Amino acid sequence: MPMSQENNNEHVKMIAKTIYGLEPILVKELEELGASNIEAQNRVVTFEGDIALLYKANISLRTASRILVPLSTFTIASKDDYYENIRDINWMDLFSNDETFAIDALVNFSRVFDNSMYAGQLAKDAIVDQFRAETGARPSVDTEDPDIQINIHVNKNVITVSLDSSGVPLHKRGYRVELSKAPMNENLAAGLLLIAGYDGNQPLLDPMCGSGTIPIEAAMIALDMAPSLYRKHFAFMYWNNFDEELYESVRDDLKSKVRKELKFPIVGSDKDKYVIDKAKNNAHRVHLKDTIIFERIRFEDQFPPEENGMLICNPPYGERLDIKAIDSLYSMIGDTLKQNFDGYDAYIFSGNLEAVKYVGLKPSMKRKMFNGPIECRFLHYEMYKGSKKRIHE
Ligand SMILES: C[S@@+](CC[C@H](N)C(=O)[O-])C[C@H]1O[C@@H](n2cnc3c(N)ncnc32)[C@H](O)[C@@H]1O
C-alpha cells in the first residue's frame, strides 16, 4: 500500500467512484465485502479496510468505476502551497524512476487554479523535481498507458492527492470487445440489475440486448462471479509494495465461489442478427456463452422464457429515428408487455423522457439516472393480473 500520512497495510482509506444514482448500491456492495466506515457522497463512496480489501474491491465491485487511495489532503492559499505540499509526499516510496506515471487532475471552484490542466502540470513538476533532487533522474510521463496513475482533486482550497489503484476503469471488464450502436457501461448495467433486485432467483430477459451487457452482467451476478475476475492488470500491481501472494489468494478465493450453473434462465434477444453475434462473442470472452441464451427475435414476437420473471430493457433513445417511429416503438413495448408478460417485473431504462410516456403503463418506480451525459429514467412496471390498465385507455 502506498505508505502515507493516512495509510498502512492494515488500515487503508479508499474512495470508490461511481455513476450518479448508484451510490446506495455501491454502499451495499461494500457492506457485503466487509468494508468499514462506509460513507456515500455525490458519485463517490468512501470506505476503509485492509490491503486485501483493496484487492477484493477492485476485483469484485460491480458498480464502481475506480478505487482511489488518498495519500494526502491539505488546504492551499497559493500555487506555491500546492507545489510544496505535493513535493512533500514521499513519491520515491511509491514508485521508481523506471516506471511511468500520469496525473488526472480535476479542479472545482478554485481561486488558485482556473483550469485542471495547469493543476496537473504543476503537480507533475513537483513530483519530477523530488525524483531529480534525490536521484539525478526522473520518471517519464505516459498519458496513454501509465504504470502509476495519480489523481488530484481540487475542491475550493482543499486538495486531495490519491493513487488510482484500478488503472483502466473497472467498468471496462474486458469482455465487451464488440459493441452495438449504443452500448451502456457495464457498471450501469450491473447497477440497474441490482436496483431491480435481480439475484439470479428468477428468469431474466433483455429483449433489446444489443451487445449483451445486461444479460452478461446478470449471469455474473447469478453465478456470484466477480466482474473483474479475469482481468490481468490493475494499477496496484505496479506499486512498490504489491503483495502478489495476497492478491493471488484473494482472487483464488473469489474464483472458488463461482457457481457452475444458473438456477433460472437468462435470455438476451434483439431484432438485429449482427448484434446478437456480437453479444455471443462477448459472452464467450467471460466463459458465459453456454450460460446465456441469445436469440434473434423482435420484441413484439418475444415471450417469457419462464413464468414470473424479470425483464429489463434499454430501448433506442431515438437519435436515428423520427418522432413517429420512436413513439410507436415505445407504444409497441407497452403493448407487448401487456399482452405477453403477465407475471413479470418489467424495467425500462431510457434517455428519451418523452417517448417513455408512449409505453402507456403506470410505472411503480421512476428513478432519475444518467447514461454518460444523457439524463435517463429507470422505470418499473409491475405486470401482474389487474395492474395492466393502460393509461390512455
Ligand atoms: C440502446 S441499444 C441496447 C444496448 C445494450 N443495452 C448494450 O449495452 O449493448 C437498443 C437495441 O434495441 C434493438 N431493437 C430496436 N428495436 C427492436 C425491436 N423491435 N425488437 C428487438 N430489438 C430491437 C436494437 O437493435 C438495439 O440493439
What overall geometry do the principal axes of the alpha carbons give? elongated
Distance between the termini: 62 Å
Compute the gyration radius: what is it? 23 Å
CATH architecture descriptor text of the largest domain: 3-Layer(aba) Sandwich
Summarize the structure.
With 393 residues, the chain is of the alpha/beta class. The protein is built from ten helices and 14 strands.
Overview of this structure, please?
With 393 residues, this protein is of the alpha/beta class. The protein has 2 domains: 12-164, VC0802-like, CATH 3.30.2130; 186-256 and 263-383, 3-Layer(aba) Sandwich (Rossmann fold), CATH 3.40.50. 30% of the residues lie in helices and 24% in strands. The protein is built from 10 helices and 14 strands. A 7-stranded mixed β-sheet has the order 2-3-1-4-7-6-5. A 7-stranded mixed β-sheet has the order 10-9-8-11-12-14-13, covered by helices on one side. A hairpin with a 2-residue loop joins strand 13 (365-371) and strand 14. Helix 2 crosses helix 8 (244-256). The termini are far apart. Mean pLDDT is 93; it is low at 388-393. The protein binds S-adenosylmethionine.
